Each structure stands twice: as structure tokens, then as C-alpha cells.
Amino acid sequence: MALNDRTLGIAALVLAAFLTWHGYDLEAPFAYEPVGPKAFPLLVALIIALCGVRLIIKGGNPAEPNPPGANARIGIMVGLVAGYAFLFQWLGFVIATAAMTILVGRLFGGTWLKSAIGGVVMSVGFFFLFDRALDVVLPTGLLGGLL
């Protein structure tokens, strides 16, 4: 099968259908907002479906193969995201986000120093932005007493 815009558009429609199917029955145990938790996945599904329809109508544009090593980096990224999801609660937002950011930075050619500075600054900055300024509770994990 040739990879082109239509193939991607069909895949986008399948993903949108999957999101709609799983997101439609989401219900919160208590009402904290009028639309509930299903609004976000349904909105994302709608946007993905519209983009998929656009790609199917537009068509053409065969995809070029990935450069050497790109598929391995993509696989490693998937593993890093899965590890982040599993360790997020236990390690806490700051440590898990810093670790993932540092490893992703290294994966895409950043130096250890730049990746470490960026990862630590971003994870601490986002923690205080979300946890303190926006009042979104994030797990503190191993740094519970310090944050």
C-alpha cells in the first residue's frame, strides 16, 4: 500500500472514531462542570476527523521514507512516553517530566547539559504554573515534602 495523504486521512478517521467511541461514555462521579469529561475527547475527535476528511479529499502527495535511524527514534519515543505514564504517579510530575524531557532532548541531538537545564527548568516551571497558579493538582511523588 502506498503511503500518501489519503492513507493518513483514513487513519485519522479511524482514530477519530476510536476516540469518539471511548470518549462518549465518559462520566464523572460528581458534576464539576456542565459538559463533563467527555467534551475534550469528543472535540479532539471532531478536529481529527475534519483534518482526515480534508486529507482524503485533497489526496496525492506520496510520503517519502523516513531517514535512517528515524524509526528507531520513534520506537524509543513511544517507550519513553509509556514509561512516563507508568512512573508519573510514583516519581511525581517534576522528576518524571524532567527525566523524560532530558531523554527526549538527548534522543534528538541535544547535549547533556542543555537537555538537563531545559528538562529541570521546564518541569519545575510547569509544576508551579499548574499546581500553584492554575490550581491543577499534580503528583509530587518522591519530592512530596519539598514541594
UniProtKB/TrEMBL annotation:
Source taxon at top rank: Bacteria
Domain DUF1468: start-end pairs: 9-139
Key words, A-Z: Membrane, Transmembrane, Transmembrane helix
Pfam families according to UniProt: TctB (PF07331)
Bilayer-crossing regions: 7-24, 39-57, 78-105, 111-130
Name listed for the protein in its UniProt record: Tricarboxylate transport protein TctB
Source organism of the structure: Orrella dioscoreae
